[in-house]
Amino acid sequence: TVSVLYWVAREPPHQECPMASSSLGDVGMTVRQAAEDLQRLKAAYANGDLAACDDALDALKKRLVFLPTFMDPRAESATRTQEVMLAREVLEHGVLVATKAQDVDQFESNFAMLRTYYEDLDGVEGVEPSERRLMVLGLNLLRLLVVQRMAEFHSALDTIPVADHKSMFIAMPIRLERYLMEGSYSRLLNARSEAPSNEFLPLVDKLRDTVRESIARCVPDTYVTLSLAEAQKLLMLSSAAEATTFGERREWVLKDGVFHFPQADDAAARKELNFKGLLTESLATAAQLQQVV
């Protein structure tokens, strides 16, 4: 219910719902109109026009919430099959749009509702499994890695049949989770090459940023000085200029091509730190939750 309210609350308040004046009106006509809006959404998504996607999603929200089967796929309706398949595809595209925008909150809202259409279709005749299901489930696993909610990652993985773990969409986030637990951060930072489809790239990039930020948090506690070239290599940045900008955003002091960390100047009071161990500890709040499963 909270997800539905959040979803609908994002509508512009001045626009009137198309069903408000007709007390549900002709459900069949609403289904046809929503199907047209869905085609508009799919075209906008294919063109990478996120603003047009948001407009199309807003229009679809106003129609779908008045369908008898919305969020209740087993409800009685003369057009139940069409309604269920339509709502499922709209929510799937809502997930895909949120992924492309790297909006993990909107992703979560859409996915929370979409689960109903993946899990509660027993007895709903004529509704075939979605061809996007494994891709969306894999994207959700990747999202959970991005936000470092590891216990939820394992819980979500447990709901996916083991046979589906071989799917490229599920296998990829499983590998990334293993890299994270092993401390194989260089492999995580190069994970773009392992993406099973372009839909995964925005979240892979966001995960890479998460890992890079975790490494950066450890640097001042690990190094007294760090050359610009070493920082570029450590953080797997594409150029010295990018490494300079990265350090400046964190107020790292750069002198003559070397970063200096004043808080680490008292080397005598510090023990030499194992970088990998410290970084693992930085991310280990998530790693420790692995023991829950």
Quick tags:
single chain; 293 residues; mainly alpha; three-stranded antiparallel sheet; 13 helices; 60% helix; 3% strand; disordered C terminus
Main sheet specs:
3 strands, antiparallel
Beta content: under 5%
Order of helices and strands: HHHHHHHHHHEHHEEH
Mean pLDDT: 83
The largest sheet has its strands arranged as 1-3-2
The amount of helix comes to 55-70%
Q: Measured on Cα atoms, how large is the radius of gyration?
A: 23 Å
Enumerate how many helices there are, as a single number: 13
**Low-pLDDT windows of residues:** 11-24, 267-273, 285-293
Class derived from helix and strand content: mainly alpha
Question: What's this, in brief?
Answer:
With 293 residues, the chain is mainly alpha-helical. The protein is 60% helix and 3% strand.
What does this protein look like?
Helix 2 runs antiparallel to helix 3 (50-64), helix 3 packs antiparallel against helix 4 and helix 5 runs antiparallel to helix 6 (133-146). The chain is elongated, with a radius of gyration of 23 Å. Strand 2 and strand 3 (258-260) form a beta hairpin. 60% of the residues lie in helices and 3% in strands. The protein contains 13 helices and three strands; from the N terminus they run H-H-H-H-H-H-H-H-H-H-E-H-H-E-E-H. The chain has helices spanning 2-9, 27-46, 50-64, 80-100, 104-119, 133-146, 150-158, 168-182, 185-189, 201-222, 228-235, 240-249, 275-288; strands at 225-227, 253-255, 258-260. By secondary structure, the chain is mainly alpha-helical. A three-stranded antiparallel β-sheet has the order 1-3-2.
